[in-house]
Request: fold
Amino acid sequence: MRTPAFILVIALFHFITTGHAEPKVANRFEKEIATYEAADKTNPPPQSAVLFTGASGIRMWKTLAEDFPGVTVVNRGFGGSQLSDSVEFVDRIVVPYHPKTIVIQAGGNDINSGKSPEQVLADFQTWVAKVRAALPKVRLIYLSQGPSPLRWAQREKQQQANQLVRDFIAGGENMAFVDIWAPCIGADGQPRPELFIADRLHPSAEQYQIRAKLIRAALE
Reply:
């Protein structure tokens, strides 16, 4: 078994003998982001739109345009992503569009991967800082983590992360927190099954309607 010290020695040997460090491993979403960039070259998206980004809950929103009549929207979600991935790709799928508003939903995959609520907050703060450095006047809307039957055991950490982000946003400027947790819980205190597709994780068409109504209110 290779120890950390052994791995470090190998890395140093590689640097000395080749003159450079080990190449950076490409983000696993590189191909998906590159596909967006290729599409932008042939069909440039509108500027000053409302940009939706984040994980699968955004990527799978097929009725996004019709759910926001009169609003120019752009979908740049990439499924399975975490907030750190959103940070990495700000310069490629956010800044070039110069959106007037950004709606982001991310954090659930972070918790599922073992990250703490505090790390979710830290990564969100990093994302905000990076976005605002390039787009200081953009409005930011965070769509909260929602409950799901599949990840119900993670609910306490999800809610803790939601609260940390909510508190951070409350102390900021030109930001809003949209809570989808409560609307997705039934009278029995459990996630409403009709609001999820067969995998018991991703939103159903009915849940997307709830999301759209809440976000429209935040946009207004």
Observations:
- The first strand starts at residue 50 and ends at 54.
- The CA atoms of residues 186 and 192 lie 5 Å apart.
